[in-house]
Structure formats: structure tokens, C-alpha cells
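Appendix B: complex inputs.
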Amino acid sequence: MPEGMIGQGIGASPVRVDGRAKVTGAAHYASDMAVPNPAWAFLVTSAIARGRVTAIDETEARRVPGVLDILHHGNMRGEVQEAGFFAGGGYAGSSLRPLEDDRVHHDGEIVAVVLAESYETAREAAYRLQVRYAEEQPSAGFDTEGAEARDAKDAVQGHEDAEVGDADAAFAAAPVKIEAAYETPTQHHNPIELFTTTASWENGRLTILEGSQYVHGLRNGVAKQLGLDPSLVRVESPFIGGAFGSRGSLTQRTALIAVAARRLNRPVKLVATRDQGFTIATYRAETRQRVKLAANPDGTLVAFVHEGTEVSSRPDPYKVAGTQTTARMYACPNIRTKVTILHADRNTPGFMRSPPEVPYMFGLESAMDELAHALGMDPIELRRVNDSTHESVKGLPWTSRGLMRCFDAGAEAFGWKDRTPQPRSMRDGDWLVGYGCASTIYPTHLGAATARVTLTPDGRARVQTAAHEIGTGTYTVVAQAAAEGLGLPLEKVLVEMGSSELPPSPVSGGSNVTASVCAVVMKACEEIRARIAAAAGQGPLQGRDPATLRLAEGSLRAPDGAAEPLTEAMARASNGAIEVYAENIPHGLPEGALKSLYQGKPALGAGLEGKDRVMAAFGAEFVEVRVHSRTAETRVARILGAFAAGRIVNPRTARSQLMGGLIWGIGSALHEATEMDRKRARYVNDNIAEYLIPVNADVPKLDVLVLEEEDKATPLGIKGLGELGNVGTNAAIANAVFHATGKRIRTLPIRIESLL
Amino acid sequence: MTPPPLGRRGLFGAGAAMAALPDAIAAQPAPQEHPAMTHTLRINGRAHPVALDPRVTLLDALREHLALTGAKKGCDQGQCGACTVLLDGRRVLACLTLAAAAEGHEITTIEGLAGPDGALHPMQQAFLDHDAYQCGYCTPGQIMSAIGCVQEGHAESPEDIREYMSGNLCRCAAYPNIVAAIEAAKPQMQKA
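Resulting structure:
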């Protein structure tokens, strides 16, 4: 047995425990799970962005053989109540009630749901449904009439702009300074799994099969919408085909499909189309930023001003507000930040991988490169002279900060010393070569979590917690935590997740899950250990202090080497299984965090919100780009990220997360933008042939370095890293493009036309 | 609703796309019955008789009528590759293939790769070993496509693999690991 367990606890790199299911097709995602005799739903979404539905003519649609029903605002009977906007204490990504009335609030809003015997029939009838509109001139946001700007500090609960010293006066008086405007586009998550929902009722109980990053949030939100006790709603989401934030909050479709299933008295299945996915869930808000950055000739920062305007919907003030991160990034005595929300006729944006940091660190890390150029200073050295053990807004200490270690290790591995500082000074035939770098940071969010761990008499463990497998490897890292805590080989640990019937875990967002869930699983394992150790008095470990006994290698072991096989030791403590339910509230979170968790509220804390300290993972990213001197074709030739993210639970899955993040960064810099017809406020490239995401051929040589880091601020010292890799990458690439071409591109994505 | 692109869906009822446009009063043919037609699909070495609406794609036939949900729907319009299966050993997009058109061909899906004893195909094993997936949703399509890629002789170099695997999107972006897995599986496949 000892042999079987070597390298399977925390810090080991086992093959994923769910890997076999994923490579054989046995992993069942929501729409893979069979329900008996389902009816099919097909959505009809609005063809205008603002106005009213004046008529819905069902005649042609109803003539399609096999059509069962058509839901629209004219025949809803108040079945769906408000779930509330998540940032205002509710559950949903938008405060709109689906099919509430004849108003159209944004492009692609659900205006009808066609139900039929088959998918093909539902689709045909949906295309035959005649929807007529009275169109009003919409505002798309920037550059259009009718958008309404509000200060985030007024519009958003709890938002604070930073004000330290007198940034504007210091900027005016500074010897070296830059001032620039940056723009980041609308982006869509586009997970490859479509947005699907299957709903069925049995004796007044509702079962929802839906890919979710928060099954307890979905359960409670739908229960509120339908006026049900949450115990009557069950959500199953064992595997999720990518999420990236898009499945964190309740969307409008779920309650509608549940209502349809209740009306038809049979299960209803929805597989929304790819284009509908662009408007029935959330997206990354577009931003426009102004940065003023000033320094002394030695590079020490004297002033930093960061202002951002972000597009949101009419009813909801979704905030990006990455200024909370940028203001804390470097030492600086004078800081002013400001966020403005621009309300327009759009659907409500939401979380997308590293929501605040991706757009705002593009602004800051581009500006740092511009300042380094103005100073005639190496961009790494500029970051070094402004490195700090404390954040700059409240003066709180970082629990650990590996930024410069990452720059030094990364620069060495990348070969940064080969860079000649002058722009356009490196060339390979027709290709202009540029090196660029940028910092990355991601706050260490933590959430309250619960778990049940059961050790059965045969020496196997079962871990139950409603966490989610969105690709991050959660089944595996949770199994590793239990294997570590109970001294078992991995194959003796079974992990059950992704169901609202299990003890609640936090939303799988903000990169918190590995840290939050491993902590509570370890806590449960420790209690099991303590119970077994306390009963060891009569056996071969007689006389040892129970506190010194530990579970390892399938035994209960004393420091002097004496041991008793686990199954025998546990038989002293229990006639059957030992089952422990544990709860954990991390440092800095309120006592009410568990109550919020049980209510399905997305309550995360720590990170940059600590009262006595701040905690984040850091990294440095290096890029070589090649820009063709005649065609301006721009390619990333190689990319390297060096990261310090505390204790790494599984280096294999951690590397994959960071690698995926770096590639997301390439997409952010060079490919991804949801294009709008600004006159009509409608998306035009709502498919994944025209919404460009990186493909295999876009990914060059890629290296990930993970540095050792010990952070003692939390018991396990884990920092989340799923969103660390794709922060700053866009700036590193833009900085490399500047170095290659001498052209500073401040609007993403950088495309051929940006450089002509 | 955005009108669907021309192509496969055009087969499903001329003019249907027009109905989605506001105020489109297109002359539409009357809706008609689509009586099921019985086909025998040979999948993973077994014959499956199945009665299908003639509009059903091979992907929906597998997933919704034959309980073979390994092939995935990611776009339903031939853009993502998640539905890739082998048809007579060639990789095809099951979402762009009508089930009726697959009759008479040997269809291989992800469920048909492992041996009867559960032994994994070398490509499946290589994907495990190289962590060539994250969420796993595109993975069946990646693996089927990777087998096709090797069999076509398009896995001669990493550059070659990157190019010929670029029809299979992976939003988690496991690409470098997918390339490594294919390089590792190729000699194993040739040995087998």
C-alpha cells in the first residue's frame, strides 16, 4: 500500500482522477444526461436592441406538426418572480425577469420559447414564429447617443475609488510622465459546451440538469423565481464543459425551461445555439481607460491616476473596477482612481476569467512600459524600484509577494538580456522581432465551504462537497487533499461533487476553490484523525499522545515509528464508518459567510479586501512577437510565464491552468473582440468562426515556470492560479509589438489594421 | 434570432431563415410532416437500426437517439470540431453530416476506441498522460481528430500537427499538451 500512495497527496502530480471518463466519452455533461421522453425547447430571441414586441403571430409556427406550446410575454402567468441581481444580494446575472412584458431591453433577449416533440420541429417552428417590433433607437454604449454615465461610487454598492495624496498635483510637478488612453473590447467566454438546461418535475420537485459554477446558487435562485422551497429544487452538474465565469450566475433561461416542463408535465430539454449564447448569458464589458503615470528620473513612481469607464446594461450596474488592483500594484505616494458605469441598451455584462484584471492591468502594464521607455529604463528595473511589501492604498502588508523573483527567473529563462532596448532594433529577415514583458497578479479570494468526509471500515474515503469541475481539476485536487489528510492512496478516495444535494461549496469563481475546498476537506480529515487517535489507547500505540499520531501510508503512526493499520485503528473508534461534516470560514470573512453560502450567495472575501492584510499570487510574463515588415501579420513566436502562487496542490493541473491562461492572453491581445453594429446595438460576429479564439496553430513555444513559495497566512498556503495566467499577457504582447515596430497600440485586439 | 447561415439548414425548409427577420412576410411553403425513415447505422462495429426524421444530423442521431453522447455539440455549424467522428476512418463533423447520409458507412465514435477489456487506445492514453484536456468537453472530438490526423500522415512534425488540428477548438487551451500527446501516441499507433 505505501507504494501505491507515493506522490498522491498535496503537491503530487497524479493523472486526473476523472481523466479516464473524459477520454472515453463517459463524462456526462448536462445535456448528455438522459431524461425520459423529453420535449424540446428552442429559443426565439429579439431582433432589436430596444423597443417593444407589438405582436407575436403564432399561426405559422403552430401549423408545424409536433409543436406543443409557445411561451411568450402574452401568455406567461406571473410564473417567474425576480431573482435579483447578484451584486445587489440576489442570484441572477441580470435583474430582468424573463418574458415579463413586451419591452425589449437588449439584442438577443429571449422573447419566446417554442416547445415541440423534437429538436428539429422546435427549431422549424421557432423560425416560423412571426415577431413584430416597434423599434426605438438603442444606445450601444461608447460613441452612441443615449447612454447614461454614473459614478460607480454612486451606482455600485460598496464601490470605493482610491484617493491617496494629491495625484494630479504630483503628476503636474513630476519630471517624467506619460498620459495615455486604452481601450478593451467586449469579449465572450464561448465555452465549447453550449448553454443547455433540462428540467423535469416529479411530485412537485424540480430537477435541473445544467452546467453550473454554483449549484447552490442556481438552486436557491430558481427556487426564489418559482416560489418554491429550495429543498424542492435539485441541480445536477457533474461535469461542466468550460465556464470562465459564464455559468456563475443564474440566467433567464433556467426558470423558463422549468415553467415549460411544468406546463407540459414532461421533461423539457434546451440546447441553445451558439449565437444565442452571445446574448442569453453574460460577457466581458468593454472599457475605456485613461492612465497618468509619473516618476522621478530614477524610476520611483510619484503619481498614478487610473480612470475607467465600463459599459453595462440599463438596469444593472455591473462593475469591472480593476482599479482596485492597479492602485495596489506598485509603491506610489499619490494615487487617484475613478470608475464610471455607462448604462446602455445592452445585456448585463458579468464575470469573465480575471474580470477586473484583464482590462485594467492592460492599461497599467502598458503604461509602465511607456514610462520605462520615457525614462530610458529597462521595464523590469522600473518594476523593481517600485516593488513593495505593502499595498499603496491602505498600507496593508502583502502576505507574500513573489513578483520580482518571477521577473528574475523568467528573464533568465526567456533570455531577456538578448533584447536590444531600442524599438525596431531586432529583425529576422522580413520579420520585425520584439520582446515584451508585463506583471501579472491575481487576488487570493477565499470562501466559506463545507464538506462531508466518510471513512468506511474497508479503509476507503468518500468526500462530498458541492464544488464543480470546470476543467480546473477539482475532482483531483479534492481527492489529493483527502488522500493527504487520511494517509490513503488516491484510488481509495471517491469524490462526489456538482450536485445541490451535497454540502455547499462556494461559487467556482475568483480562483478560490482549490484553497477554500481543500481547507475544509483537510479540516474534516483532521477530525477523523483525531477520533481515531483518541481511541488508540488499547492497541499497539498504547501510551502515545494522541495529538502526535498521524494518518499516513494506510496506517495510524506514532513519531517513534510504531504503527497500526488504518482499518484496525479505526475499528477501535467506530463499529462502522466515521463520518465528519466540516465547515470552514477563512480568515477575514464574516461569521455570516456560512449562512450566505447555504443561501447560495456568491460571498467571497480575502484577496485585496482584507482588513489587516492583502493576499495575491504574482507572476511575470515574457513574449517574443514577430511582425511582418510588409504585411503587418503579427505572431507570438514564444511566450513564457513565471509564477509564484503559494503551495501548488497539483503541479500538473496547475501548469495546465497557467498554460491555458497564457493562451487566453494571446487571444485577448491579438484575436478576441465581439464586434457591434453600433447603430443597432447588435452583435455581428456571434459565432466561433468569426469571434476569433486561439487555435492550435496560434500557439507557439510556451513555457510555464512555477516558483516555490511558502505563504504562512493561511493554514495550507494555497493561492488560486486559474485566473493568474491571463492577466497582463495582453500588455506584454502590446509591449512586444511596440518593441518590434515602434508603434504603441492602445486598443485591443491588435490586428493587422492596427499596425498599417 | 440571427438567421442561420446558408448551407445545411437550407435543406430543412426553404425560406425558413426569412421568418426570423422582423416584418419578413416571406412566402413560406406550408409546414409538412417529416415521417421518420428507418436507417441502419453501423457504429463502432455494431448495426443500429433507427427511425429518424430525415432532418436529423448524425450528431443528434448519436446523442439523442442512440445514447452515444461522447460526440459533443459545441456550435452545430462546423466551426468547433467537438462533434468529430470517423466515417470509414476519415474524420468528419457529425453536426454537418445528415444521419441518413451516414448509412452504409462505418462510423467510429469515442465510445468505440477502448478495447472490450477497457484497454485505452494509445491516443486516449496519451491524452491522459499529457494532461491534454481540461474541462474535457472538446476532448472526444480532439481525440477522434488526432487519430485521423495521424492516419492521414499529417502528424509528421509539431508544426504539422498544430496546423491539422486547428479545426478542433479547445477553449481551455490545452493545445501544447494536445500536440505532445499526438507526438507520443503516433509511434504507439503505428506499432499497434
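Chain A touches chain B through 86 residues (CB under 8 Å).
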